[in-house]
Every structure is written in structure tokens, then in C-alpha cells.
Amino acid sequence: MPRVGYGLLLAACGAVRATRSKAEVCAEDYERSNRVLDLIHVSSDHPIDEPRILCFVNTISTNHATKARAIKDTWGQRCTRLVFLSNATDYDLDAVALDVTADHDHLWQKHKASMQYIWETYRHDFDWFYKADDDAYVIMENLRAFLRSPEIVMQQDIVPLQMGHRFRLTNETIHYYVGDKSLLKEYTNRWPNWWVFNSGGPGVVMNSLYMRLAVESFPKRTCLSDKYSVTLPDDASIAFCMAWNGVFPPNTRDLQGRERWHANHPHGVYYTNPANFPRDVWFNQYHRDIGGIQWKEDCCAPDSIAFHYISPEYMRHMERQLYFCRH
User: Fold this and answer.
1) In the chain, at which end, N or C, are there fewer CB atoms within 10 A of the end residue's CB?
2) Is residue 1 assigned to a domain?
3) How many angstroms separate the CA atoms of 298 and 169, rounded?
């Protein structure tokens, strides 16, 4: 898959007015994000189209013309294939309607339905599968370079892998979320006070072994039935489900402990000092004993892969800064 052409990139970023120079456009600092974006190197390693990655993005019809369109116009172009899973079909967007209620109480059901659809439809055509929310921004070149690294390649065909930004639930939230108390007791007996999952916001990348095992496991009691998963976030649910198969999220930070996947936007991860907040605030708790939170220049690996909470305007700004302004 060739790199996005210069003209198409301009269109994707929102065509620059003729009255504004490239220097003026590139001097814009949307939400004070340029400092962290300057820390990121976009990989130029070849081949740029391998491995083959199918990106599937969960969205809803009210976001088709805004968030979903922004993804299709920016980073989604660099996926081998991009599919949107929604509550309504949109042929222009390549959005597929799933028969699941589109509300916050059915996220786990939609998660399962989306993975089942993707696996049944595309399992033979791709090497990796990237699941993202419609407010994620993914640097596909860095994702591919990461997946081509020897430590990942040697595991790809023998270990089920789901990689992203790790969170750890507190003991209190574990007991709150799991409604099936007999199953909760079994879980805590095996893994006391240990429930680590990858944040769904910036997205996760999964190999075929993980996709197949997850889909095969969905009907099992240990994968949390719809009755007991109304309040449970879908990203935590899939981790709970896969723990019974001995599959846990690996550490994806670099050797300096800097994150590659980010559960916040660039200015958030750069300027948020965790020491300024109580130890029991959720984002400090969710990183306890799995590397903590780093900020400023230590926030982000140079080969960072994904960010979360990215509006369409923010998405196009990142596209300009990472591509247009560097050429």
C-alpha cells in the first residue's frame, strides 16, 4: 500500500487556504500538542505495507460524518483495510451495521459482535487486527515497525497477543464490576487483586491466535454473560475473559518505560503531572504496579503508536504535524 500522496494528504488535513503559507499552517499549536508531537518519529522502515493490518473501528451513525470521516481521511488510509462497525450501514464509509443496541450498557455485546464479524469475514486475509474507538489516532508506520520487531515476530504464531496501553483495576472496582459473585470468587482465588487490561480508547492490536481464541471463548461462563456485564467496560471484559485462557496483556513500553500506546491526547499525557493528584485518583490507581505514569519528555516513546480522545479537528492537526509539516 503506497504512502498517501501529497495532494490527498492536503485534502485529508483540510485543504490549506491559498492565503496561508505552509509555515503559518505548521506553526499552529492545537491544544498545545506540538511539543509532544515533536518527540515522535514516524518510522520510514520498509516495507510500509507489511504486515497486513485490518483496522476495525466501533462507531455510531451520529459520528459517521465527523469522527469516522476524520479517521477515513487521515490515519485510516494507511491500514491495509479499514472497516467501521456501527448501528447503521454506510456504503461510502464502509460501515457495517451490527444487530446490537447502540448504548453504553451494551458495549460488551458490541465488542463481542464486532470481533465475531471481523473474524468470520476476514480471518484469512490479514496478519493483525487493530480495534479502535472513533476518537483514536494511530500512527500506522510505527505500529507496523513495532510488529516487525524480532520480539513480536517470534511470538506471533505461537502466543495469543493483544497489545495496547495497560490499566490495572483496583480491588474495589473488581468487586463492583463482576455481578456473578461465584465467578468473581473463582477469579480472585486465582488472581487476587490482579486484573490488568488494555484500554480500548487508543485501540489494541491482536494477532490471529488471539482473535480465534477470544471468539471461541465468548459463549463460556468465564466470558461474562450479558446478564452480568451491563456496567462492565468492554475492554476490561475481554481481559477478564482471556485470563481464564492464561492470556494477559504484555508490557508495551520501551526500555526507558515510556508508553507507546496512550490513553489520553498528546497535551494530556505531556502536561499531566501525576504527583499533583492524590494517589487514589483513578489514573494513578490504574497505573499502580505496572510502571506508573511518566510525563513531560518521559511521557512518550519516540515510536509512539496511538492516542485517545482525539477530536476530528485534533486528528487533522496531528496529520499535518506528523506528515505534511515534515516534508
Assistant:
1) C
2) no
3) 24
